[in-house]
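Complex 120.
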Amino acid sequence: MGRPNTFPPKITYVQWNQLVEDYISQSDTSPQTISSDLVPDSNTIRNLGSSSNSFNEVHAKDFYGAAHYSDVYFTDLVCPICEKKFKPNELIAFLVLSCSDKEIRTVPVHVKCAMRRGAK
Ligand SMILES: [Zn+2]
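Predicted structure with zinc ion bound:
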């Protein structure tokens, strides 16, 4: 099976897995693109990668689910209260920005800034 140039509108997990295996086996380093949703054929059974063959980075706008065995990195580099950059060994807390029935949105802040500010 050759490397696919196009993908069908609704690709199954099994088809996707075969395409990925074919792609990896060809040692081609150019990225593949898809123009449709990637949906597994059943709920909460399929995996993406494995403990011995994992992806290096996953880029996404939003991530829903539980993160296991994970370090946490933030793209917020500045404390929104004091407006100073975070430095190694500083303690951080989370400031809740918004609440809904489904989630809370937070940003990291210095613990000292949170304590100084108090609950509002
Ligand atoms: Zn601060």
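The pocket of zinc ion is lined by residues 79, 81-82, 84, 109-110, 113 (CB under 6 Å).
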